[in-house]
């Protein structure tokens, strides 16, 4: 019997599969969770992966789903019991959230079960779910007590048409025995003290446990499968474009929806197809460019580059690498150019980092408007003219806005296009490093106003549609767009999005010397409704339930823990609006 192991869970092949009622479409299972063999080999049942597909049926103003259990297979009686239990669990968990918008779920002839999906968050995630149901199997026949099975879902995976459009979704249900629960779902630290201090929170004990379990499993996955949090959050050392000791270049991108990927630029006279990437597992692409004769660098400092994407529809797209370290708009160009940044003598810090203040007196500032002159001010201006005044006023911390590169200046930096690039409007990267270094010499710590709540909808010089699809870094469809900000919303449940965002935080700390972050737009991250048209009265029920995006919450938990673990001298602040 074949056994695949992911995340320390023993995943045996699928025994239940729901029919996908779509013709002319295809999808591939996410290799990170299940292998192709899972569709073909007979399995034992007590540890089961259940895969089911959710075709998307759109009516005018709602999204509905229909599920149908596949009754084929000799083990169907056992399967049917679990399937019925699953539907019952879903119905119980959703009972408090019933709305007019819903769907019919049929379980092998048992009749429809109401399972509402709200339009604003149609991809419902159960997470760790209780109560468990008894496992009906041979153990009972042998006079043994039944084994209890606890189910939970992975994040929804998108099914796409050949044109790259989202046409449905599938989820994977992992069910594991209660005996393994203790090792996989640890006790929430200090939860009893929290509940003793505020008994009104006892109603939400399971929410705390589920949220902590989500955080724990992400962290444990990183430790078990990515070489640890230290390596995982330094992925900026392998993704993008990097110089080898011999002068060659290693180029790496994540473009899961691309049919082909190439690198072009000044170095090859803008030949779009002369340097193809090799397709790797999990949507990754790699290219190695050897050095020239006598170790001549194939791509020189200051030269322009572009990633060329051939989309699933055959369209040729010119993109900036999501990991680009320097982008600039030159001359009369409307869009930004990706410029290879590798100065022969990089900036070296001269001053020690001050100790973390016991209390913060924060001066919020914007480099570009920190001057009475009628022009965009510079990093140099801020260093020489503003920092001394901030120190004289008694502040011990500055919070810098609009640092992450943004094509639209009037957005005040909140429509980020290049997450690893410091804005070139104010000067080159070394000038920002000097600004932070000089602030440290004055005993001032520097926080970055980091924007991980959304991203610019630009595609020519942003993350949007990087691989030719509307997903990749973002949710597909309406869930991936902020209706008021006209921006894209990250899929925090996607493994590569976690890699990108966590590495981005580490980059700003270790490359530039920032002393922490003020996370912008956390209210929008935490709730599927993004705070739009919602008032918060302070009732605890407003902060729990289906309106909470627990993928985003888990990301914030991992990010905060990572920063505190690797850089305990750093400060993290969340901007929330209630």
Gist of the model:
The chain is α+β, with helices and mostly antiparallel strands.
Describe what this molecule looks like in 3D.
The chain has 578 residues and is of the alpha+beta class. It folds into 4 domains: 4-184, no CATH class; 186-225, no CATH class; 241-339, Immunoglobulin-like (Sandwich), CATH 2.60.40.10; 362-574, Glycosidases (TIM Barrel), CATH 3.20.20.80. Helix content is 22%, strand content 23%. The chain is built from 11 helices and 31 strands. Strands 3, 4, 10, 11, 12 and 13 form a 6-stranded mixed β-sheet that branches. Strand 28 (481-482) and strand 29 form a beta hairpin. Helix 5 (205-225) crosses helix 11 (550-566). The longest helix is centred in the middle third of the chain and has 21 residues, at 205-225. The termini are far apart.
Name the descriptors.
Immunoglobulin-like; alpha+beta; 31 strands; disordered N terminus; 5-stranded antiparallel β-sheet
């Amino acid at each position: 019997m074949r056994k695949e192991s992911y995340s320390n869970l023993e995943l045996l092949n699928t025994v239940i599969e729901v029919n996908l009622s779509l013709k002319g479409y295809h999808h591939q299972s996410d290799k990170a969770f299940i292998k192709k063999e899972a569709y073909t080999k007979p399995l034992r049942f007590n540890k089961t992966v259940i895969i089911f597909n959710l075709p998307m049926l759109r009516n005018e103003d709602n999204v509905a789903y229909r599920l149908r259990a596949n009754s084929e297979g000799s083990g169907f009686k056992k399967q049917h019991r679990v399937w019925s239990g699953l539907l019952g669990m879903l119905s119980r968990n959703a009972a408090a959230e019933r709305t007019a918008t819903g769907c019919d779920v049929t379980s092998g002839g048992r009749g429809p079960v109401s399972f509402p999906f709200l339009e604003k968050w149609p991809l419902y995630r159960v997470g760790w779910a209780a109560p468990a149901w008894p496992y009906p199997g041979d153990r009972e026949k042998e006079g043994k007590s039944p084994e209890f099975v606890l189910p939970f879902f992975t994040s929804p995976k998108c099914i796409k048409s050949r044109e790259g459009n989202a046409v449905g979704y599938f989820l994977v249900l992992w069910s594991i025995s209660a005996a393994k629960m203790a090792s996989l779902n640890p006790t929430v630290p200090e939860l009893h003290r929290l509940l003793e201090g505020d008994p009104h929170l006892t109603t939400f004990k399971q929410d705390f446990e589920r949220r902590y379990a989500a955080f724990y499993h992400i962290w444990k996955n990183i430790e078990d499968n990515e070489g640890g949090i230290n390596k995982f959050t330094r992925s900026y050392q392998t993704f993008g474009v990097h110089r080898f000791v011999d002068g060659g270049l290693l180029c790496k991108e994540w473009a899961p929806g691309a049919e082909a990927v190439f690198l072009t630029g000044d170095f090859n006279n803008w030949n779009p197809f002369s340097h193809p990437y090799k397709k790797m597992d999990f949507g990754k692409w790699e290219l190695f460019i050897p050095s020239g004769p006598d170790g001549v660098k194939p791509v020189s400092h200051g030269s322009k580059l572009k990633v060329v994407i051939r989309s699933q529809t055959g369209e040729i797209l010119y993109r900036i690498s999501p990991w680009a370290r320097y982008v600039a708009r030159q001359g009369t160009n409307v869009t930004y150019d990706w410029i290879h940044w590798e100065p022969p003598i990089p900036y070296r810090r001269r001053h020690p980092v001050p100790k973390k203040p016991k209390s913060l007196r924060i001066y919020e500032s914007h480099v570009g408007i920190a001057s009475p002159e009628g022009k965009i001010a510079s990093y140099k201006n801020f260093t020489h003219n503003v920092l001394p005044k901030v120190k004289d006023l008694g502040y011990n911390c500055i919070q810098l806005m609009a640092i992450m590169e943004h094509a639209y200046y009037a957005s005040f930096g909140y429509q980020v296009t290049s997450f690893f690039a410091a804005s070139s409007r104010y000067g080159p990267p070394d000038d920002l490093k000097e600004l932070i270094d000089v602030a440290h010499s004055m005993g001032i710590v520097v926080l970055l106003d980091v924007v991980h709540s959304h991203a610019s909808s630009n595609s020519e010089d942003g993350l949007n549609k990087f691989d030719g699809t509307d997903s990749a870094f973002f949710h597909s469809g309406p869930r991936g767009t902020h209706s008021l900000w006209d921006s894209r919303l990250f899929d925090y449940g996607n493994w590569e999005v976690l890699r990108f965002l966590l590495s981005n935080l580490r980059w700003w700390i270790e490359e530039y010397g920032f002393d922490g972050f003020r996370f912008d737009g956390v209210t929008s991250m935490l709730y599927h409704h993004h705070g739009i048209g919602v008032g918060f009265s302070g009732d605890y029920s407003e902060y729990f339930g289906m309106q909470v995006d627990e993928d985003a919450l888990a990301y914030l938990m991992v990010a905060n823990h990572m920063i505190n673990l690797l850089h305990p001298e750093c400060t993290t602040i969340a901007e929330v609006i209630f």
